[in-house]
Amino acid sequence: MENDRESFFSVIRNGETADVVRMISENPDLINARDERGTTPLILATYYDRGDIANALIHNGAEVDAKDASGNTALMGVCLKGFTSVAKKLIEKGADVNARNAMGASCLIYAVTFNREVIAKLLIGHGADKGLKDARGNSALDHARMQGLPALMELLGNT
Length: 159
What we know:
By secondary structure, the protein is mainly alpha-helical. Helix content is 53%, strand content 0%.
């Protein structure tokens, strides 16, 4: 199983969609396998902006809100990276826009921290809680203020 998992994660990184689909059909347990950091195939696929692979994984039963060892979800990763189309797909498939990691950071806090305005708008449009605070007591608006991001400050209701 170890070699299967390593091979599976490798084909995800390389964007080999057909191989991912084949490997899932041969070994369905791979769908929610984890690497040494607790990363799932879906988290890995979304982190590398592999939308087709993410779709195949979700279609075959991948847990959309699975968390890695730090408590990060696939949606959090795309908020950090700025992959809007993958963020839309995850939200469409029911990803929790208010999920929080071990440090209390939410998807919206990540989107704001990394100046991903389009994704921040998308999250808010799908019910992201603007008032969530991370472990340091900072909300998304606080992060926008600290970084001097006026468009995001306006979006988050800075007056």
